């Protein structure tokens, strides 16, 4: 990772409303954004990532739903959204049968849990994401909520790293 030492300083000095907007681009949970912002100033990357972990651990079920609302369905990245398309690069050029299977498995998951299937898709193939979706479908709601919390933390870590590494 490239180190842009002033990025943390710039974020720490950003006014509250602007910082909230920046953080909501990372994670769409207002409670998460407020908790991460309240942890500033962050002394280094690890401190910011620790603020992410602590904020994720404190989210309620409703807060997790807010966070998931900012994510596209697996297999259907939001058109024109560079973040969504980059994070789901593993579905590009995939056979239509795999995309159809993802669509069907997503629908079954959403019917059961009432929200999108969430997984840190970075570096994963479409087949791997489909396998994870099928593997997690039998979970109970409480188990799945904790898995989602962990996946969101990983996604946020990646997004925060990208934010810090941006020139």
UniProtKB/TrEMBL annotation:
InterPro entries per record: OHCU_decarboxylase, OHCU_decarboxylase-2, OHCU_decarboxylase_sf
Pathway: Purine metabolism; urate degradation; (S)-allantoin from urate: step 3/3
Pfam families hit by this protein: OHCU_decarbox
UniProt enzyme class: lyase
Domain Oxo-4-hydroxy-4-carboxy-5-ureidoimidazoline decarboxylase: 14-161
Lyase as UniProt keyword: yes
Gene Ontology biological process: purine nucleobase metabolic process; urate catabolic process
Enzyme Commission number: 4.1.1.97
Keyword terms: Decarboxylase, Lyase, Purine metabolism
GO molecular function, one term: 2-oxo-4-hydroxy-4-carboxy-5-ureidoimidazoline decarboxylase activity
Keyword flag Cell inner membrane: no
Reactions the enzyme catalyzes: 5-hydroxy-2-oxo-4-ureido-2,5-dihydro-1H-imidazole-5-carboxylate + H(+) = (S)-allantoin + CO2
Protein name per UniProt: 2-oxo-4-hydroxy-4-carboxy-5-ureidoimidazoline decarboxylase
Organism: Kitasatospora xanthocidica
Gene it is expressed from: uraD
């Amino acid at each position: 990772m490239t180190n842009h030492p002033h990025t943390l300083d710039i974020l720490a000095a950003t006014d509250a409303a602007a910082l909230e907007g920046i953080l909501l681009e990372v994670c769409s949970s207002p409670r998460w954004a407020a908790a991460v912002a309240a942890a500033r100033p962050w002394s280094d990357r690890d401190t910011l990532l620790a603020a992410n972990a602590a904020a994720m651990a404190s989210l309620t079920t409703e807060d997790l739903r807010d966070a998931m609302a900012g994510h596209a369905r697996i297999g259907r990245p939001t058109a024109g959204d560079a973040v969504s398309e980059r994070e789901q690069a593993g579905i590009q050029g995939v056979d239509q049968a795999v995309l159809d299977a993802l669509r069907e498995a997503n629908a079954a998951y959403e019917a059961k849990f009432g929200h999108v299937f969430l997984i840190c898709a970075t570096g994963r193939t479409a087949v791997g994401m489909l396998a994870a979706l099928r593997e997690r479908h039998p979970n109970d709601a409480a188990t799945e909520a904790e898995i989602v919390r962990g996946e969101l933390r990983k996604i946020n870590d990646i997004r925060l790293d990208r934010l810090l590494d941006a020139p």
